[in-house]
Batch of 3 targets.
Target 1
Amino acid sequence: MSENCMHAQFTVNGETVDAQVPVRMHLVDYLRDELGLTGSHLGCEHGVCGACQVMVDGQVVRGCLTLAIQANGKQVQTIEGLTENRELQQLQAAFLEHNAFQCGFCSSGMLLTALEITKHHKQATREEIRELISGNYCRCTGYQAIVNAIESVLVKSSSESGAKV
Amino acid sequence: MNAPHELPLHAEGVATQENYVGQSVPRAGAKKLLEGRGTYLDDLRLPRLVHVVFFRSPHAHANIKQLDLSQARKQPGVVAVFDGHEVAKFCTPWVGVLGHLKGIRSAPQFAIAPERACWQGEAVAAIVAQTRRQAEDALDHVMVDWDLLPVVTDMEASLAGDVVIHADLGDNKCFSRELITENFEAEFAKADVVVEKVYEFSRHTGVTNEPRGILADYNPAENLLTVYQGTQTPNMMQDIFSRHLGIPESNVRVICKDVGGSFGIKVHVYPDEMATAAISVMLKRPVKFSADRIESFLTDIHAREHKVKIKLACTHQGDIIAFDLNDLTGIGPYSVYPRTSGIEGNQVVNLTGGPYKHKHYKAKLDVVFTNKNVTCQYRAVGHPIAMAVTEGIVDEAARKIGMDPAEFRRRNLIADDAYPYTFPSGVKFEKLSHHQCLDQLMTLMDYKGLRQEQANLRAKGIYRGIGLAAMIEVTNPSPAFYGVGGARISAQDGATIRLDPAGMVNVLVSVTEQGQGTEAVFTQIAATAVGVKVENVRVITGDTAITPYGGGTWASRGAGIGGEAVLQAGKVLRKHILDVAAAILKVESATLDLVNGVVVDKLSGQEQMPLSEVGRVAYFRPDTLPMNFQSELTVTRHYTPREYGFTFTNGIQASYVEVDTETGFVKLLKHWCVEDCGTIINPMLVDEQIRGGIVQGIGGAMFEECMYSEDGQLLNGSMADYLVPMAGEMPDMVIGHVQTPTKTSELGAKGAGEAGTAGAPGAVMNAINDALAPLNANVSVQPFTPQRVLAALGKI
């Protein structure tokens, strides 16, 4: 069986991809195998663990449940790009400071979920943070350090913006 | 706890101005993992790389009547196809037995089963293709004609032996052990009170976020096999590849880059990984195997399928006289190589009753084969079973005589001044701190206040429970664990430490990094020992070609054994650096010290020279040094714990839960753990490692179960069906410490990696049963699903 492909044009971390994309290939496989962006990981390949998460048009998606062709006309951002443009800088520093990771395999996905929390759930309580990261599996930590790290960023941004904590 | 002057690291000449030991510094070298710049196994690419996938048996027990690979071979991209006979020509089979587990038996196991599959998921053919997708597509074209054989999945049925899995062995018994202390029956008969209970544990598995993987690269020109593998034991695997593939040991190099979690899953020999290495030799090119999630569930070792009958005998006053244990465990069709599947049950026998001062003990263990996936050592091997049955029956006894469970434990825990102590099972404790840990726990959790709150809420129809679990943990094993049984598994580890010309300190260690922070704690120890800043230390692990020889990461041994080697090597390097500086300065080296990477005058503290100057002279201008002086700025030291079989640690956990008696759901409200792992190198890392361990223990107690049908089909081989703990269900966990450094090493560190997992299931079980007690209900089958809770309440 030869690969059935379709033409697609999209950007990955700001760079244009203009290619024939195998129609059955998942986005995370395309990023890893074709573009060498191995920062997004394959944990379960059925949408439960969250290690494969990337952003498509600013929304976090499971890279293992999204077909590469679905990225056509869209902007894809990965852990590599979000590191380079410093969007994750504060969270990465907090994760390191709080030891909010061990093996790091979940971290790329976890950080993207955390970024969404800092953008859209600025007032999240600890319990809400726990709920919001419940789509990301971490086998190493007790999750507590991750909650602490995300909470510390929320508290910091909230005090910087002058809002009441 | 040792007195302050007894703490090894306070000894003269060890403490430096910048003592990183005991400080929560952020993990050195780990930032790459947060930036997507780690190198996990599946991230590796090599020229001419091909991908192997395996055709796995859909049946739990079946003979291969005919295997037809001809159509698969013709599929696009397929490079080669192999059956078990072909691979066996390049990789000899193995038998998972050890000499010191007397009578243990197993059958020869092949990389690819040539004639018969003994569990659903056992590989019977390999397909190699240019891409993994092509190889997976070709799997659909493998034709097998099977001859189905009788299946035995139930442990008791296996013991009865109506269906025998390996005819050559005569029955299904892998290993048995019996132990009885002197006058046991007479002493047991003297008891006022005997409580008895049966506990069942469902098999579960590690679910590492990164599945298993291997990339083998054979170079025929040099007869050199380079294996990239997510493994906890590079040297053990080097030996095994060498012996089973027939390549000289020195020609096998095992490299372990970043690993996405191990927990004991990645410490064993897996047939598909051996086959991948063999196929690389056969094809003379690099071959990669990366398991997908269903393969992980079917073939990553499972663990902890036990049925335990336990009795406790005590006096009316609450003094424990004896424990009587009967453990049955089912391990799948083979004892796993080379550590065996007898160790887990053996540990249950060794450790049951472990925290207490009774003198009498009887134990019987049966380990039987079944047609399910193999089981073997998984984080906290045997401890979660031993601690749960001990602590469960202790609570039953306390309830029966009407004593508070904390008070019952206080009465029976081994006294803190009773050490060294030999436990009835024969294991020896150097120095434990049960009572200090209990006292600290009571304060930390406000035990009395919590009991009051519980009583108040119970009056309102809210059922909350408090569960305690005291524990002991095997760490820093000596050669008595595996070496004496004939396994080529190193109990010693080594560190090579070198001053580089620019003044950086480079450390090579045989213990591997699995994400727990090994390299970070070695960085802290090296910086402390040499007298430099942590940012000037670089640690390298996981490469048999460059690191010293050693055991790797398992049994909570990394910090205690590898760390001691780093400390000793670092101290000698410090001395050698000062010798060079003294030769340059023409002073006695005793007048100099090394502080924060600068050579200073010991008395005045005045700076003499930076390390880069020592490096410059030693490496590039040794002609300026005295004729009879040779600098030695590379030092290797090794360490083996030998005084005790294991360096035991201890601790106690508590769980606070609320049971919804209508739905059977258990809400975990809070968890506490007070633990004594000796010298703590990085408190922040230890605390979260313990928390992660607790969560893993909670997983087994509350959610995780590899469910099999009677005919041996795994029913829940996906993460949608096999539940793991996620953040939403987990409580906040409070961690406390008592520090009793081991005197067997200068560092004084014991292990901490498994304590959380060891004690959590028992604590949670006791909390649930404490909540259910007023309703005369009790759960004893893990995991404690809502269904099991409701059944206990008689509601379904």
Note: The CA atoms of residues 27 and 70 of chain A lie 8 Å apart.
Target 2
Amino acid sequence: MMNRIPFAVVGFVVMTAAAATAQRGGGTPEPSSASAAAPIDLTGSWVSVVTEDWRWRMVTPPKGDYIGVPLTPQGRKLADSWDLARDNAEGNQCRAFGVGNIMRMPGRVNIAWEDPNTLRMDFDAGTQTRRLRFGSSPAGEVSWQGSSVATWEITSGGRGAPPGKPRTGDLKVTTTGMRPGYFRKNGVPYSDKMVLTEYFDRHSEQGDEWFTVMAIAEDPAYLSEPFVVTTSFKKERDGSNFKPTPCETTPPPR
Amino acid sequence: MARHLLLGMYLVLTIGAARTFAHHSFAATYLEDQSVTIEGELVQFMYRNPHSFVHVMVKQKDGTSIRYAVEWGGVGQLGYQGVTKDTLKAGDFVIISGSPARNPDDHRVRMITLKRPKDGFNWGQREGEVVD
Amino acid sequence: MKTLSICALLFLAAVPARAQVDLAGDWRAVQHEDTFRRGGVLVGEYVGIPLTPGGRLRAESWTASQLTVPEHQCIPHPVTYAEHSYAMGQMRVWNVVDPETAKIVAIRKRGTWMEPERTIWLDGRPHPPAEAPHTWQGFSTGRWDGHVLTVTTTHIKSGHLQMNGVALSDDVTLTEYFTRRGNYLTNVTILHDPVYLTEPFIRSSTWELDPSLNFVRYPCGPNEIVVEIPRPPNFVPHVLPGQNTGLDEFAVRYGIPVEAAGGGAETMYPEYLQRMKTAPVPAAPKPAAAAAAAR
């Protein structure tokens, strides 16, 4: 009996929403999966275009160079004590390739539907994989990429819209449950308490296809305010340039 | 009076918090890892945007004088810090330290500190007193 | 349980968000990325910019002294630079409403430093003919694509991409995507310049709404034109090609190959990581000299 009560509530809500949609004249039928509901197409092979923060992304910056990152005193203390050799010895080579920095790493990402409700992102930098799960993310072990819950945000052509109106929108992803990692290759830290919120937008411009991800990192341990960066990728014809490499951070040149 | 003082402090703090960078790149204009100190008679004070300028006649070892141009803040920045067009006058003896320009022919300096010994007026010692 | 999960998916998979949003307000630049670059670039620092050889030559022939001549003193930042410049650390946006129809026909934006101000027309008007005058902020039209304001700007005067001599021609065009999420406003810009760039150049910046912002005025007009640096009459500061000292400073300071500092499209892509492993790197700088006496 107790198990049936939540089902009844959900059923009531579904029926109410369906009735509301019917009152508006029917509109666009509701897609049955996240892949069918996608207002934008993020699938394909993409390459990062490093036009900003070049010397923090293409090169390992010196220890203590965390300009722009709103670190707490504890965060600065950790950043100032970064030790690459220790990270390597302890098997933490992938600290800079975690979810807090993987989108900023120069490299390529292949995006495809692993199943109708899971968008998979494979990165050649550090040979990393993110799974963006629509609906909910199963509680799993803590990982470099954490657990990501995805939602489509429809801004036109969605529920109740006139038939034929094109869908537009973006992808919102919330990630928690990550291992502590680095925002930058030189040990600028984030903790396992970080909440990373990302918004993915698509742009088509003069024959080129792009996506830009806006990332808002909130970390009560090491950030004094939300840390906001935006990163852009350009679509490639295919994945032939995708070349997985292991997690490796070269020492700073100076 | 107290209310005006508090308002002034708020405005200074706001300017300090919303720091803007210059309309040109200081790193591309000046040798920021070097410092020079010049002293001499102030001959012109141009209180204006985008940057105020202080011109100082600096005596050289050979007895000649060279006119130095010292770049300072804009009117908005300096105004909030209490510097007005009447703060400095032609004839004042001033001691200025700053970063020298990359082009030595310009005889140009970016202000870091200014002192006027006759009355102790100084700039560059307090928080926020940085040329932006 | 399976039925419950499907029901949850139906609602969580697609959430109606918002279409056109209001961009009006006072905005403060979020200075978390490219912090140093926007206002503190060195001579010879062109990494990540797809420069043509001509663009590089022009940049290497630049001197900051050019900004001191009377004709340049009050030039505002062109739209190609202003939208990402922290010299425009404050921005005010407001709507222009047609009093007859009550429709928003344009959006106006104003920055602080040198007060660049631009109009983005939303009323469907066409761009002027190619031979129409160019301005520092160009001619902009916009349209809403769902929650994104897509803006196209043409007729921009020849200006700069970076404050160390990286120039743009008057053939440059700009496409922008403004997106507001809560109190954040993101602007993604894509530049095309057939003269100085070999391929499209994309950048992005974020602003945060700040109703308490003390919007600073920074006018610069004819009354502000002075002799900043005394020079002989009619002398124009310049650096002849190949004569610019200090071009290697960025590479030396950060241990980066000199060729990387010179920019080019290849420096934008991950393949360049391999190239940098073998490209020659200049020796480390000597310790800075102690503070010098008066010249």
Note: DSSP finds five helices and eleven strands in chain A.
Target 3
Amino acid sequence: MHPLWNELRRAIPLIVHQNQYVMNVTWTTIRVALVSTGCALALGMPIALTIGLGRFRGRRVLHILANASLALPPVLVGVWVLVFLVPHAPFGSLRYANTLTAVYIAQTVLALPFMVALVPAAIQALPPGLLDQARAFGASRRQLSMLALREARIGVLVAVIAALASTLTEVAAVIIVGGNQVDIDQTLASAIVEQIGNGTTTYALALGIVLLALVLVLMAVLTALQQFSGGIHLRFRTTS
Amino acid sequence: MKLVWDEFRDAVPLVFHGNPYLGSIIWFTVQVAVVATAIAALIGLPIALAIGLGRFRGRRVLHVLANAGLAVPPVLVGLLLYLLFVPTGPLGSLHLVLTRRSVFIAQTILAIPYVVALSAAAIQGLPPGLLNQARAFGASRVQLSVLALREARIGVIAALIAALGSTLSEVGAMVVVGGNLYGYDQTLAGAALFEGNAEHYEDAIAIGYVLMVLIFIAMCALGLLQQRGGGIRMRFRPAR
């Protein structure tokens, strides 16, 4: 047990004294998580609303596809995004390969399924009378969307948190499209892979502790939300 | 677009010409997926049954822990195993770092939370009268477990699907503890990461196809099982 304990004793000061490297990686990670989740939210919301509220043919097929996209291996997403970004590819002239922008793009693609699959599920779980009534009262499409999002807000928040958690902890796509370069596009998770490869376990441990802390905070928020939503649900049930 | 298409076309022969390198990776991946999911089911289902059927203190805490386990970043699992398995670590004498065995262990540990959390939820979702009636008729613990598993079959199989999917496509843990060594302990996802990183796009894409096909086959096989389970459940419902 001794060497492990020593590692831990050396790793803690790296965090407490705000080691430059650890801080940089942490900020990059938080930025990547926020930016890509934000982009996924903006891109995914119209699709999610279409699937959740629309009444056209093929809506169920779309929802099944959206659910299936949750199972997409991140490695594949990484490879496909990279194939479009390398110098000779369609978007190669933008020179995004091996940059932070490429990481943003790949992570957005990975966060999108959470919005597209979880938000419609939350909308469809609303009491059916609610939306029908709004429709009967002549709500416009925009009003209906606003109503659905407001009522399903807990589900939307859960989707956002799931997307944040996945972007925080993703390794494969980040390494493939970004090349895992120190101080450019390395995130906590991919930095751990590199530090273990280098044999600098102390840094890996410090980064691991920070990552764990971030994930724990997210999970605490999620649990609190779910408790809260349980309450709301109950109140709603009794009146219906 | 031409380049993207070329990559696509060049990848196809790699799959069909039975590249021995690809063949050995596929075989290893299938082994890892099947063995890891099976062991995870062996370990996880009893725990899920205890959570779902047991009436002891701390049952809810266990369920919350299992749910939290779903959110643990694979990289952190890899880091933890690495620290345990390095020669100077507590389990260093087992010589597991950078071996195929460590890949099996890592993927099994990642699969367990899926089995436990999702199966327990499925068992808890059973109509409460069913289990109480069985208890009242004096069903033994084994009989009760078999009944619960049979009735919650849809959810249990969904849990196994999720577990299998994660063992097929997860890289974070195995890259750290197994080292993702070329020609030795690479799974398909690990190999795609390796080739993508080395900018061998045809290889990465070819491996990606195979991975997708494998995931698709696994999902279809288990999905069929699930459908058959659905029939049984439907028959049960009207009698209630």
Note: Chain B has eleven helices and no strands.
